[in-house]
Amino acid sequence: MSEQHPSAIDQPPAAALPVSESFFSLQGEGKLTGIPSWFVRLSGCNLRCGWCDTPYASWNPDGAPRDLSSLVDEACATGARHAVLTGGEPMIFPALAPLSHALAARGMHITIETAGTVSRVDIACDLMSISPKLSNSTPHAGDPRDPDGRWRRLHESRRINLEALRALTAGPWQHQLKFVVAAPSDLDEILALLALLPPVAPTDVLLMPEGTSPAPHASRDWVWQACLRHGWRYCHRLHIDLFGNTRAT
Ligand code: SF4
Question: Which residue's C-alpha comes closest to atom 3 of ligand 1?
């Protein structure tokens, strides 16, 4: 992407990363749900999902630059064997690469959580957790956070990058495609997108009901039924059950 990412807070020095929060918790989503993990949430994103559950790392990025050595020391001190590099969009930060390699050198399993709009090969990664953004993610016209509609247009133009998705699903790591779904019509979008990618194993496709509270029956029944039909995984949000919609969990 040639355009600069105006969402990133002031770019820190190369040996540092803008960090919104870091914490030790259980992985709440995806194939590795329940595994004790050290998380670092990088602050800044090239998208603006209307329903973003971490607006403090996208719409209003907070935090401060942290040097890489302090992050690695913190991760190791937790005793975690798994590290989750998330955001925001971690892939837009050049210093993601040295951080990922430093953690891998200490024997940690690395998950990178990305929307899949940026591909790169300089990172260490065991599980690429890709969450392509469907049209349900685009901010509504009139969203007060986007008075001139600039982010609505940018988001819509950026949210699907087929070249990046193809590269990320073909990379030297395991992958999962995690779709946030809001309505049954989302299924057609998912099927159309999967048809444009190299074959993805059905069990690597995850459907997660949109929301920051436990999904009511009406909004989750069609999701699990779609998973049964297509062989996909239903993706729960363990951290919401355990901790509610709170930061650093
Ligand atoms: S890609 Fe993720 S962090 Fe960025 S706006 Fe969407 S949900 Fe928020």
Answer: 88
